[in-house]
Amino acid sequence: MVTPSTHGVADRINEQISQNSHGRLFAVIYIGGHQFKVTTEDLLLIRTNRRFPDVGDRICIEKVLLVGGKDFTMVGRPLLNNVRVEATVVEKTLSHRKIWFYFIRRKGVKKLKLIQDFLTVIRINSIEVSEVEDDVD
């Protein structure tokens, strides 16, 4: 339902996007089961598996939950389709060693494992918003 207070919101957002007067954009993205609030030039440390892209690869993050600027915020239900977040893989490394020790007393059962997680550092290059559609019935 369109009310007088919400009518034309998409037009005002599109005007700010076309004039590039929205200021510094921020976004909430979803990677690896976690949500991160990012802006341009941010570094993220993410727990990943070995199959994550190699160092220097550019990736496009499509799972954007929210994006905002100086005068507006758009919330996806659940995701936003018109937002593009680009990032570059900066580093791939392992975390510190964690000790996993299993022991049952008087049974002679002892197990010791050293566990390391795969970590990936990515840098957010840009957050781009395309034209917003007015979803009015």
UniProtKB/TrEMBL annotation:
Keyword Ribonucleoprotein (UniProt): yes
Organism superkingdom: Eukaryota
Matching Pfam families: Ribosomal_L21p
Keyword annotations: Ribonucleoprotein, Ribosomal protein
Any coiled-coil regions, as ranges: none
GO cellular component: mitochondrial large ribosomal subunit
Biological processes, Gene Ontology terms: translation
An MF annotation (GO) of this entry: RNA binding
NCBIfam families per the UniProt record, alphabetical: L21 (TIGR00061)
Family in the record: Belongs to the bacterial ribosomal protein bL21 family.
Protein name per the record: Large ribosomal subunit protein bL21m
